[in-house]
Amino acid sequence: MAMDAAASAANEVPAHGKPAAEVLAALGVVRERGLSGSEVHARRRRHGPNRLRRSEARSAWRILFDQFRSVLVGLLAVAAALSFVFGRWLEALAIVAVLVVNGAIGFLSELRAVKSMEALRKLGNVRARVRRDGRVRSVNAEELVPGDVVVLEGGDVVTADIRLLEASKLQADESTLTGESVPVGKSAEVLPAETPLAERRSMLFKGTALTRGAGEGVVVGTGMNTELGRISRLVAEAEDTTTPLEKRLDRLGQRLLWVTLSIAALVAALGLAAGRDWLLTVETAIALAVATVPEGLPIIATLALARGMRRMARRNALVNRLSAVETLGATGTIFTDKTGTLTENRMTLSEIVLPSGVVRVSGEGLESEGSFRREETELALDAEPLLRQALEIGVLCNDASFEEGEAPEGDPLEVALLVAGRKAGIERARLLAELAEEREVAFDPESRMMATVHREDGAHRVAVKGAPEAVLAVSSRVAGEGGEQALDEAGRSEWQERNEEMAGRGLRVLALATRRARSRDVDVYAELTLVGLVGLLDPARADVREAIAGCRRAGIRVVMVTGDQPATARSIARAVGLVDEPDAPVVLGRDLAKADSAAESERLRLFDAPIFARISPEQKLELIAHHQERGAIVAMTGDGVNDAPALKKADIGVAMGKRGTEVARQAADIVLRDDAFATIVTAVQEGRIIFDNIRKFVVYLLSCNVSEILVIGLATAVQAPLPLLPLQILFLNLVTDVFPALALGMGEGSAAVMDEPPRDPRERVLERGHWRAVGGYGLLITAAVLGAMSIALRGLGMSEAEGVTVSFLTLAFAQLWHVFNVRSPGERMLRNDVTRNAWVWAALALCSGLLLSAAFLPGLSDLLQVVPLGAEGWGLVAAMSLAPLVAGQLLAGLRTARRDATR
């Protein structure tokens, strides 16, 4: 209660208008310790989870209601009403049953898709680093409560309204809240209470992002009690989750609707002109219209996309946007960074180059045991002041944490520096107790350096680490066993040569420097004394070589884009099989800036160079634009906050889940939970499979529907007996249209899907060849059905009722077997992506059981007017229903042989 009263008092003057100490006191929290676990639970019960009120997902009742809103369902209801009026109770009840079953299937399918999407959204929770019980830990952002002390750094997404307690070069992108496109500088100063929102420099707001710097702050508002929450009360946002593919399928369905209604009207007119019973004719026309429109296309497409997303999630690729799944199949170029994607991101400090010589460090990964050797001599740290100084700089100028017995947190490079210090007995916590940190200058991509300032013996020690060329440029002296010496241009060149030699062996190289200063506010990047270079080994991932080879087979170009040195980049590129030659071309960032003409771009091999080094995040945007202008579909990987624009610009933005910033993750279409390049290739493969599966079931559905239209239309045109009765048509719509199509959408895909070039992004779901296949297969099934009926009536002398039963069963089984005709091109006849699909066999078993029930189950057979057939009748059904499958397989074999001959 005391806390609530204090917080209420604090709210009288806004947080930005009070000193940080008063805000902390009002919220009942000590900065150095943070909240206790029990207090967090109490406040969470009081304030609720830290999330905005979400737009409500479609309820089950709404999904069920939507199943009965189509024009065709209305027509079917009219047919049922007419049947009731004219006393045809069985037909009326059967039509109602069809409406119910069809609605139930659509309802369950769509509900499953919605649930799948909701489950996927829960996989991508944002994290925040908070101090609780005196320790910094990572928690789900929804668990934040007022009073939580949050540790901040560039790249974080701000997940609550926060009053800053400390800020070092901190900037925030507040465009989502204020519309200001330029990042805003932040500080911990007290501001007038009436300061406008856009000028509150001591506040961070939920939904914005930190673009650089570091700091700490205390949460003053969560959930709907934030500035973003107040806005969201006024604006109701509804995200359009319909993908372009689903929209294209929906438009296709709408066009087919009117075509089919026109055909149904023509069938009705011809039937009435032929003198048939008008009610039977109207029911047949309406049933034909309902049965032949693939109204389930968008639902099945959503299911296929959602299942593909779940498969990707199980394989460590979390898809943020459903539309990305279909774009993946068209990806032709992958820009990938090096560290953690092509390499293991398992940094080990293996070498330290000092003015006194090279020191080798033993022990790999997170091992705390290791030795320091110069040639064959093990070094004692007490006798090596320069070695100790280098290790201390690496431990001090560091944002990572690695407590004994716990998993490390932070950049793997910085963790490796802590591990190296631990091997020498230098623990960060103990060192900071002696050399208290008073200031931090966060890593800046422009300067490529980081610095910390520490109090030491009444003065201050500056610790700096960064890119060797950057540190060398601001160093005026170099440490030595006999004291510091001036660093001239010849000395810089010598150190630069050492750096290039190390980088050429694939090491990640950092320079370490220091200086003494009287004030904490000294220019940290001036008059530095170079202490040495450290080489960190990050081995190439074992699975990358195979993945890159797979990309080449699939016609996908892989390009390394890294901020590292060209020698290091080239060494790793050779290790993973990206290049073979030791002098492979590398385009540098400084050269890319000169590519302002087509001639210069060609000279730099801008469009076929395999490696780009020393590339800034801004230059990644240029690379993407250059390739997109040439029609390429580009996937780009990134992990930093400055990568966010490039991730948005790329056709597929891929963020790193382990080492990526929250800003990068939210800007990306896909997040890799294992940061592995092979996972990108897996995602591309899944994207191709999903598109192929959708194309398969569209071809299958439409060819089945075309056969039904042709069977009824041709029989009516020549005034032959109707091969199908209304309820038989509706029964087929439930059996053959739904289950096999769903099964095709669940397929594992062709083994050869990555042996084909990328799909043209402008390619429609059905191209001219697919429409020819739809028409051809429809004609084959039609010929088989009408042929079977003709043989039954004229060749075998069967009654009209028996002839209709033969045509009904022939059409039903022919449509079931037709599922095997939609195998991928080039696949074997007996062993292919359809025959390997367990869902297809389950669907065939279920549908065959339903059809046999229609033939033999009393009541159902009477309702559908299916009469008993003898051995001759069933032999005719078997032979004629298999005929389209045999013909289809022969045609597929001819197409494959012709395609192989032209290769």
Describe the main β-sheet briefly. Answer: 11 strands, mixed
The helix content is: 40-55%
What is the β-strand count? Answer: 26
What is the level-2 CATH architecture name of the largest domain? Up-down Bundle
The top level CATH class name of the largest domain: Mainly Alpha
The domain count comes to: 4
| Named CATH topology of the largest domain | Calcium-transporting ATPase, transmembrane domain
User: Strand share of the residues?
Assistant: 15-25%
* Net shape: elongated
Report on this model:
With 903 residues, the protein is of the alpha+beta class. It folds into four domains: 2-52 and 126-234, Calcium-transporting ATPase, cytoplasmic transduction domain A (Distorted Sandwich); 249-311 and 684-902, Calcium-transporting ATPase, transmembrane domain, CATH 1.20.1110.10; 318-342 and 541-675, HAD superfamily/HAD-like (Rossmann fold, 3-Layer(aba) Sandwich), CATH 3.40.50.1000; 348-399 and 412-537, Calcium-transporting ATPase, cytoplasmic domain N (3-Layer(aba) Sandwich). Helix content is 48%, strand content 16%. It has 32 helices and 26 strands. The strands form three sheets. Strands 10, 11, 12, 13, 14, 15, 16, 17, 18, 19 and 20 form an eleven-stranded mixed beta sheet that branches. Strands 8-26-25-24-9-21-23-22 form an eight-stranded mixed beta sheet, sandwiched between helices. Helix 5 (71-85) runs antiparallel to helix 10, helix 9 packs antiparallel against helix 11 (297-314) and helix 25 (677-717) packs antiparallel against helix 27 (739-745). The longest helix is centred in the last third of the chain and has 41 residues, at 677-717. It is elongated. Residues 1-11 and 234-241 have low confidence and may be disordered.
